[in-house]
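hey so i finally got around to running both of the ones u sent me last week. sorry it took forever, my laptop kept dying halfway thru and i had to restart like 3 times lol. anyway pasting them below in the order u listed, first the sequence line then the structure token line for each. didnt double check formatting much so if smth looks off just lmk and ill redo it

first one:
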Amino acid sequence: MSIKTDRNFDDLAQKFARKVYGELKGDIRLAVIWRDLLATVPGLTDGSSLRILDIGGGLGQLSIRTAELGHRVIYNDLSVEMLSLAQAEADKAKIKDKITWHQGEYQNLKDQLEGRFDLILCHAMAEWLAQPEQLIARLEAMLAEKGTISLTFYNQHSLVYRNLIRGNFKVLENPFEAHGGSLTPGTPLDPVLVEQWVVDAGLHINSNTGIRVFHDYVTTQRGGHRDAASVIEMELRYSLLEPYKAMGRFIHLLINRG
């Protein structure tokens, strides 16, 4: 199902904070993304001062973490409520004044921000856009020559597989429609289609991993499922391996100019 306007999270911000980053699923997401970034963007930890743009920055975890490392970070989100929550977290970390805060539509950023960026973070946003097919090309226009885009998106295959496992066959008989107050995106994306958008923008996929390749499919916790550290360890291991990474609830792409 396509949506008419980009989804503003003002009404979902508190639920997002509670249901994603108040639970293990948020820890898994951050662990996989950060592991991938460290492996691909050495400038993160070698004392460099990268110019970083965090689009759809949500609660600001990665804006805060990269600012703490001395990078020049601009945070952006469409949601005023999300920005407020992110600023509160940055204030707790005593890093708020080191981040430039920007609220508004991502489509206007190129005209409002000077220069290009060494790292563009864009996580779990594409699936909430009215025109997700425009996203990669717009990010490319703000990317430095040797820069990297870190993109995550909601995997259409995982949505189908999860409903198959749970016996929700009727859900699969019609075009998917998310409930208005749900954190399940209305436009899950086919990885093949996203990869084509990358190619069309003249870019190259440097890394492809899965996020939550088994955690979200578990209906009865047993054994290692009860140990958060073990779950994260296994998620990190299998997020790199086929066929498991292809079943991640989200796909994480690290993109550059090749």
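and the second one:
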Amino acid sequence: MTMIFLFIIHTIAFGIGVFLVYRTILTALRVFLLPRGARDRLAAIFFVAWRKVFYWRVNRSNTYEDRDRIMAMFAPIALLSLPGFMLALIALGYTLIYWAVGVGDFYESFALSGSSLLTLGFAREEGFGLLLLQFSEAAMGPTLAALLISYLPTMYAAFSVRETAVTLLEVRAGWPPSAVEMIGRSHRIRGLDYLTEIWEQWEHWFAALEESHTSLAALVFFRSPKPNRSWVTAAGTVLDCAALYSSTLNRPRDPQAELCIRAGFLALRSIADFYRIKYDPDPAPTDPISISRAEFDDAYRRMQEYGVPLKPDMDQCWRDFSGWRVNYDAVLLQLSTLTMAPYAPWISDRSLLPSAKSVAKRRSQETQAKK
């Protein structure tokens, strides 16, 4: 009876060990190699656990700058510790396998597993089958290290492309980025015809964003070099600018602006799908949005002050703007919350409004730069 019980226990241990090794290898393939957005539950659990640790620390901070500084370390730390987590699972899996096939007690099995995985060679077992197991485990450590090394340059190349456009947007849309300010500056400096080039550039940016931020999912949480910048607020500003142009400006119809909006909300929805963010995939143009009519009217009046040509029917402009905004409104706000984006009008959490002191300091710097 005891022998049967031990056989069952060893069989279960062997099965668990094989599953841990297989599941870890599958996670490595999905995270580091698969060129598409494939959500992996094991990696998701690992990143969520790290995120809860950082959120706990963030909740003890009083200012957005402190929260941004803390969250800037989240993605790098989680990403660099992921291979260590995978190695630990592989070591545990092989420990159970060695123990199940009779290498010795659990300590001896763990010593053999660690010696093989880290290629230390201080422990060894004879036998063709055991040697094959040791060789296969010894290949895991260098392979995971090589995958991470090859993964990081690709990620930072995509990060650099993303942040170049985000940085340039501050020149056009101010700080915090505003669609109204972007339209006003374009009207004053180069004329509204120049916006067509912007729509084309950002249509390509959105396509690259969709590909990189689903296949290299950790990029979503990599923060901009400066606390006041974010890929989420940049995306929202450009989309709102294109929506205002298409709905409110008294200009000839620009199909490129509409294509930019479509590319944008498709990209944001793809990222939202990866993180299982819920939204209505087919909203009606009359569905409510997070922007109030009073806020839209205020934007309309500000554009009037800038001398921007506007359509006279404000009610129709509001309906048309809502019809465009509803396509990306929900996902934009939820991605802003997920990434803890800085304040930007119509995009991020209104509780993140910058202090009057910081705004005054920034405006003073901009005034000095103009002089």
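quick thing i noticed on the 2nd:
Confidence is low (pLDDT under 50) at residues 350-371.
anyway thats it, ttyl
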